[in-house]
Design brief:
The protein is of the alpha/beta class. The chain has a single domain, classed as Rossmann fold (3-Layer(aba) Sandwich), CATH 3.40.50.300. Helix 1 packs across helix 8 and helix 4 crosses helix 7. This is DUF4515 domain-containing protein.
């Protein structure tokens, strides 16, 4: 593992709490005077498969999405190489890099389950060499409907019970796929249940895990 860079990949279906945990991570990291002053946070808009492009939903194909992920990892690698080039005589705070990526390798695995395995494993090995740990955020099946409606109540006002149930089933099925692919991934992954919405507790757990691994 590199001594100059470390980070976390936040995975999970919509409404699992990725954005809330990401915000908490940024706040806690900023409060720690010994933490890295260089922090890179890329939300899902820079790495996901489906994107709203000027009002139109566009889905990347497997090769396009893989190339996008490779470009993001290449950026991190080049920054780490620069830190290594400068030499070892510096603190983590002054020269270290902390990164957070949202919806990344597991998102790709689930979207393209029949893709070429060696390509995504190569990407995961690169992330591993950059000190990445994956965190899969999940919600218990019996409160999925409640979570979805509590996060964006205006979107559900005119939905039928069947539409809500179908959306909940999609959530549960996708979450099961994310779990399956997390077990197949090269990257170390922990699962955090977010039923209680204790975002700072979860963020502290992630930071503690990174510190123990570093």
């Amino acid at each position: 593992m590199s001594h100059h860079i470390r980070g976390v990949i936040l995975e999970g279906f919509s409404h699992a709490g990725k954005t809330s945990v990401l915000k908490a991570l940024k706040q806690l990291h900023a409060q720690d005077e010994s933490s890295e002053r260089s922090i890179i946070v890329l939300s899902e808009h820079y790495s996901q498969v489906l994107n709203n492009v000027q009002g139109d939903l566009q889905r990347l194909n497997r090769d396009e999405h893989l190339q996008l992920l490779k470009e993001r990892v290449h950026m991190l690698r080049k920054l780490n190489e620069w830190a290594a080039y400068l030499g070892p005589d510096a603190s983590r705070a002054s020269r270290g890099i902390f990164f957070v990526l949202e919806r990344f390798h597991l998102n790709h695995r689930v979207a393209f389950p029949n893709g070429l395995l060696h390509e995504i494993e190569s990407l995961e090995n690169d992330l591993l060499s950059l000190g990445a740990t994956c965190v899969l955020l999940t919600v218990s099946s019996d409160i999925v409907e409640q979570r979805m409606q509590s996060r964006t109540p205006h979107e559900w006002t005119n939905k039928t019970e069947e539409e809500i149930r179908n959306s909940a089933n999609e959530f549960i099925q996708t979450q099961a796929e994310l779990r399956k692919h997390a077990s197949l991934s090269i990257l170390p992954t922990i699962e955090i249940n977010t039923d209680k919405k204790e975002w700072f507790t979860y963020a502290n757990k992630v930071l503690d895990l990174l510190s123990s691994n570093g």
